[in-house]
Structure formats: structure tokens, C-alpha cells
Design brief:
Elements (H helix, E strand, L loop, with lengths): L4 H30 L1 H4 L2 E3 L2 E2 H40 L3
Antiparallel strand pairs: 1-2
Helix pairs in contact: 1-3
Protein name: DUF485 domain-containing protein
Pfam family, one: DUF485
Keywords: Membrane, Transmembrane, Transmembrane helix
């Protein structure tokens, strides 16, 4: 089954979502680690860019989760169901 075109398509669709999201999230995280001067700039009062980025990481985690669920429902689950049905002999 791993050599089938359906499984290859499933892997491709997963990777097309997972790799860019992972790269974006890591870039966001690394920016907060290495851009110390930028992150320490004050926005208002005791609030600086780093604090806003830190809070934004929580929001971005929920956003990425929501996007993945939507992507999986539309693009991954139909193929995975087809593969499972084929393996189990349901159809």
C-alpha cells in the first residue's frame, strides 16, 4: 500500500501543509530568540514586542490547529478513508 499512488498523494498533501507551517512557526520562534534588540522595543508602557510575540504564539498555535483540522477534513481524510476501505475490503 505504501507504494500506491493514493498513499503517495496522501503523503504529498500532508507534507504540503505540514512543512510550510512548521517552517513558519520555527521562524516565528527563532525570531523571538535571536532578535533581542527588536523584541525589547517598547510598544506601550511595559509592553514590548517580545511580549506581543509571545502572546501571539498562543494565538498562532490555535490558528495552525484550526487550519490543520480544516485541511485534514477537506484534503486528507477522504483519501485516508479510501485507503482504509481498500485495505479492509469494505468496497
Amino acid at each position: 500500500m505504501q507504494a500506491s499512488p493514493e498513499f503517495a498523494e496522501l503523503r504529498k498533501r500532508f507534507r504540503n501543509f505540514a512543512f510550510p507551517m512548521t517552517a513558519a512557526f520555527l521562524a516565528w520562534y527563532l525570531l523571538s530568540t535571536y532578535a533581542v534588540d527588536f523584541m525589547s522595543q517598547r510598544v506601550a508602557g511595559n509592553i514590548n514586542v517580545g511580549l506581543l510575540f509571545g502572546l501571539g504564539q498562543f494565538a498562532s498555535t490555535f490558528l495552525i490547529t484550526w487550519l490543520y483540522i480544516r485541511h485534514a477534513d477537506r484534503n486528507l481524510d477522504p483519501i485516508a478513508t479510501q485507503i482504509r476501505d481498500e485495505l479492509e475490503g469494505a468496497r
